[in-house]
Amino acid sequence: MQLQFKETKLLLQKEREAAKREAARAPVIQEVPVVDHDLLEKLTSENEKLKTLDRLPLLPEEALLGCVSSASSSSWFPSYDQTISQCHGLKLHCSNLKDKVVLQRGVMIGHRGIGA
User: Fold this and answer.
1) What are phi and psi for residue 27, nearest 5 degrees?
2) Residue 77 · residue 71 · CB < 8 Å
3) 3-class SS string, 34-66
4) Which domain of life is it from (predicted)?
């Protein structure tokens, strides 16, 4: 029994040493370049488009300020008061429609009650 124990202990020790040697060895990993040519072409063309957009001349600060002031006074950008009044108008219109639906339902219910 003791002989088997010693043999097992020796085998275990040898396995540990072998495992340490394997762990110490650097794994050899070969990198294989994988190229998706379609994706590469797509990204290259998109990159070129972005570069051309980046090369567009920038407007001077005065021109930008002029655009903002003229845009705020134009009819393209409604003022806050106009927007609020439009919202109130839509709310009023919706509430009127709801009232009409309620009245119509009441008429239909009353009509059914009379005929029954």
Assistant:
1) -70, 140
2) yes
3) CCCHHHHHHHHHHHHHHHHHHCCCCCCHHHHHH
4) Eukaryota
